């Protein structure tokens, strides 16, 4: 079959809201894995990334249909599911017989609701898609949309002739990720146009990788619809092979590992550090970790292998809220872990969330005070957002008011307002947090030291102007 896998249009403004000036555009790694799997099965495969190319609906549809697809596979997050449906509608206007699939985290969390809202999708893929798509393509090639045959493929949902939902048996998780073909980076075009947010990058070109699936955490704000708490991982050697391919073939000089928790596989991490260090290449990297899963030995190994920054989820500066959101950390653990990271010679990035259940003006101030007291180099503070599939999505009515609109669930808008604080106060405190954190000599000096290219300078300056405009454009402020 001719299979075209699609990242639908999504602007930086839609993804990052008022902070779009400092946003990044990362490799659609999921599509690259899917593409390599179906290509290995003998199908003619293309990837169309409308987001990175900044194509609108008509431009994206034109590019897709130029590939003359028999099958279009769309992925979407919650804020882009509507855009994905519009692409599918336009494609079917041109070629009504084309088969359209939908998959991804959002769809797996809300499949029936999504298919009811957007009947243009012929079939939905639930959970991990690599094995499912290979089997499905074989069935579609031979039998088309014959439902008796589709029912034999695990991990699908679709409607029968009467409009009833049919779910096929659950697809087992892929236990050995090394069995998957390497992601089809070659189908993405010029990889160097992708980049994480510039202020998180030390060396360009840079890109992101995910080398494991699943997380042991129970955080109430996270969706675990696909991987849950079942963990799987690439081996250290597989990871090294991906890094070396990106380094030698595509010129990548930095990778950000976006595993939900890169530090959970301690033995693999130490082996990867050993293998990478032995390569002696001009390469740096960063990773996400948990404050309760790092230790001095691990951190020293990461630093020696080229890791220059670790991002940790702090979320709140109030121990009761940390307990309520099932973070299972404390301010004391957070402080200790950040101290260890700095002692190892690495930078610290920290994620915070404002607007938790039980949040008040006092707890928000605690969070800001904690952030300012720690040697954190940069941070993100988003608003708590009840995403489909998360625990808070099921329980939010106990804690506040939720203005649910999938298009607005980008975590940068205060759509959930806890009973202890107003929306206006949330917005004022968010601005105050950014102002107090970034307008400090230590932070500004650190950014000046990180300027290593005109690209850095241009993006930092643009982001700084956008921050100034956002923080000060209203007179109202928190004290």
Summarize the structure.
With 479 residues, this protein is of the alpha/beta class. The protein is built from 18 helices and 17 strands. The strands form 4 sheets. Strands 2-1-3-4-5-6-7 form a 7-stranded mixed β-sheet, with helices on both faces. Strands 8-11-12-13-14-15 form a 6-stranded parallel β-sheet. Strands 9-10 form a two-stranded antiparallel sheet.
Specify the number of helices: 18
Biggest sheet, in brief?
A: 7 strands, mixed
Number of strands: 17
Provide the low-confidence segments as ranges: 475-479
Report the C-alpha radius of gyration, rounded. 22 Å
How would you write the strand order of the largest sheet?
Answer: 2-1-3-4-5-6-7
Can you walk me through this structure?
This protein is α/β, with parallel strands linked by helices. It folds into two domains: 2-167, Rossmann fold, CATH 3.40.50.280; 190-472, Alpha-Beta Horseshoe (pyruvate-formate lyase- activating enzyme), CATH 3.80.30. It has helices spanning 12-16, 29-40, 57-65, 81-94, 105-109, 111-117, 130-143, 147-150, 236-250, 266-279, 296-304, 319-324, 331-343, 361-373, 391-395, 423-438, 441-450, 454-472; strands at 2-7, 44-49, 71-75, 99-103, 123-125, 156-159, 165-167, 206-209, 212-213, 232-233, 254-257, 284-289, 307-315, 347-354, 378-383, 400-402, 416-418. It is globular, with a radius of gyration of 22 Å.
